[in-house]
């Protein structure tokens, strides 16, 4: 899920930040980050973060690369045709069809379980990481805590920072886990708070690992279903499930691209 994703996840903030104090003061440079971490540690502990999560918080570093990326998101301002060209839509469609055919039973099981067709899941997978080809090179916990500290969208990212620390507590990630510049993780780039809430074990090994394809795809299908996906209904613009794609990413051009690519993969 890229970062314009799920402004609807702001509703997640209500659940994850309930009861948090407001003692950690945001900032716009690295200068105040260490003091913010010390204050935020108390808030995180009050929110249920354990010792491993707190240790991960203590080891985080201010990410200038994350701030630079946050200030320069351009592709979502493109026209639909330009966006699809830049993001390699034709390649995603071609590869998505091959992957669906190669692993048909798996995608059929996901559709039976969650009602979400393969095309949508594969379009998201291709769009987010090139089908797992590049899942990011930034430390997830440092990136997401940097954004929680940064004043521009602190309220949005704070629940995801708490989520990341809880994922460390659970052993799902570590302080060194790598993901995207905004702290998204795994094959389909879940923001940490959403990973915590919607992650499921798709492989049957007893744990949720977003860098495992089965877990990531099942979790993505679970997210969409929990957000209101109606099995058997359409997902093109104006159809019932299109609004659910909006829950994955708030950029209109992204939503339209996923709907178009998904239909062509399934077609």
Q: Can you walk through the features of this model?
A:
The protein has 14 helices and 2 strands, in the order ααααααααβααβαααα. It is 56% helix and 1% strand. The chain is globular, with a radius of gyration of 18 Å. It is an all-alpha fold and 267 residues long.
Task: Record keyword descriptors for this entry.
single chain; 267 residues; mainly alpha; two-stranded antiparallel ribbon; 14 helices; disordered N terminus
Strand order of the largest sheet: 1-2
Tell me roughly what share of residues is in helical segments: 55-70%
- Shape designation: globular
> How do the helices and strands follow one another from N- to C-terminus?
HHHHHHHHEHHEHHHH
**Low-pLDDT sequence parts:** 3-21
Overall mean pLDDT score?
92
Q: How many individual helices? A: 14
State the distance separating the first and last CA atoms: 24 Å
Structural class: mainly alpha
- In total, how many beta strands? 2
Assess the beta-strand content as a share of residues: under 5%
Main sheet, how many strands, which sense, barrel?
A: 2 strands, antiparallel
Query: Which value, in Å, is the CA radius of gyration?
Result: 18 Å
